[in-house]
Amino acid sequence: MQIGTAAPTPDELLAAKHHFIHHKSVENDYNVGSFEKDAITRLNHLFQTKEIVIMVGGSGLYVDAVTKGLDNFPEVDKSIRTHLNKQLETEGLESLQKQLKTLDEVSFNNIAIDNPHRVIRALEICIGTQKPFSSFLNKKKEKRNFKTISIGLTAEREIIYNRINKRVDIMMDEGLLQEVKNLENKQHLNALNTVGYKEIFKYLNNKWSLDFAVSEIKKNSRRFAKRQLTWFKKNENTTWFDYEYDINLITDHIKKVIK
Q1: Global pTM value
Q2: Cβ neighbours of residue 153 closer than 8 Å, sequence gap 6 or more
Q3: Which residue ranges run through the membrane (predicted)?
Q4: Which domains does the chain have, with CATH numbers?
């Protein structure tokens, strides 16, 4: 999944020590809770010899899990999720969205409502606990033993969208279609229900043309970028820099904050 996940290249991996790259099989069950535990364990080890560790990422939920900690949710019957996944297949995402709006309008208005994983997660808690998913959020969390400096890179929206479109074209030129074909027998896995893979599976299953599938990858990537910006803009402690800003001035800023 090198192309579709835009994983660091071999040269990039040699330039700096990376962690959690290609460390899981697509068939492994892995979620944000598992990532939080693994990342904190690794950080505790790294901080024994290093004062600064850099985390780079696009998923705000995963970033917050490490820097702030996750909300705690009670265990619920796994059959609830199985039932909701079947409902997604047979009735579509909209039916789950309507159900969530009825059970927990606060969550309906605040989570990424077009992301089936997030909708199902909220619903299984609502159903399994008979309490709103939102009632478990923003409780006091365990304090981290490190401090975080948050830096954001931004650009005009038109530039971001144009670069996304160009990036998808480059991924196709590099062989994304063949990469997805190689995973065709695993398309039922949750890990492959993601942008860049799910659209090409529609083409391989003769539901869409290839041109339309590529246009959908671009559209869904742009939507994802918009959600990313919305999430990260909520963090008032983030210092934002234009993507063309001198990297040395950014590192100077970080050094000043550290001092």
Answers
A1: 0.79
A2: 240, 241, 242, 243
A3: none
A4: 78-136 (1.10.20.140)
H-type helices in 78-136, by residue range?
Answer: 78-91, 93-103, 105-110, 116-129
Rounded CA separation 253/251 (Å) = 5
- Provide the residue-wise pLDDT of the chain in tens; the chain has 259 residues: 999 999 999 999 999 999 999 999 999 888 888 999 999 999 999 999 999 999 997 788 899 999 999 878 888 998 999 999 999 989 999 999 999 999 999 999 988 888 888 899 999 999 999 999 999 887 777 789 999 999 999 999 999 999 999 999 999 999 999 999 999 999 988 889 899 999 999 999 999 999 999 999 999 999 999 988 988 998 899 999 999 999 999 999 999 999 9
